[in-house]
Structure prediction request, 186 residues.
Amino acid sequence: MGILNIIILAVIAVAVIWAIGAYNGFIKLRNRCKNGLAQIDVQLKRRYDLIPNLVETVKGYAAHEKETFQKVTDARASAIAAGSVGEQAKAENMLTQALRSVFAVAENYPELKANTNFLQLQEELGETEDKIRFARQFYNDVVLKYNNALQIFPNVILARLFNFSEQEYFELDETPDQRQAPQVKF
Prediction:
């Protein structure tokens, strides 16, 4: 066996080892993306379960605020029914806006703000929102790694060969005023 044959076999072996490693890397990252999205779903489910309790508690104090409660109920239903990551993000944005309305209503009722059940629900919802933000951050970080792995050369060749496709980020539509720091006044 000549030196040329050994070099050709070595190049083929390196190419095969690289292809196996790259393919397995794509699979691992794709699965991490799926896991990240599942973690977001777990936290969103917890949020969806808390919302009816919160709305019922506030309803007892503010019966004439039916439109606000209807918006929350509709937004929750839309968020639960969302299909794609983009639809889910859009529905979550609507739900967040509706929840802000509920807390704005609560500001008008001092007895409600002092209600232990309301305070506990508000705290649990706040903790859940933090967990959702963390899960979204984790998912988006993994999507970034996955999409980068698919796009860099020579991985892009293998990715196209095996029909790996980019994942969508979980992004919420924020208005410009939501991106600014809140004004604290005493």
About this structure: Residues 3-61 form the longest helix (59 residues). Residues 3-165 form a domain with the de novo design (two linked rop proteins) fold (CATH 1.20.1440.20).
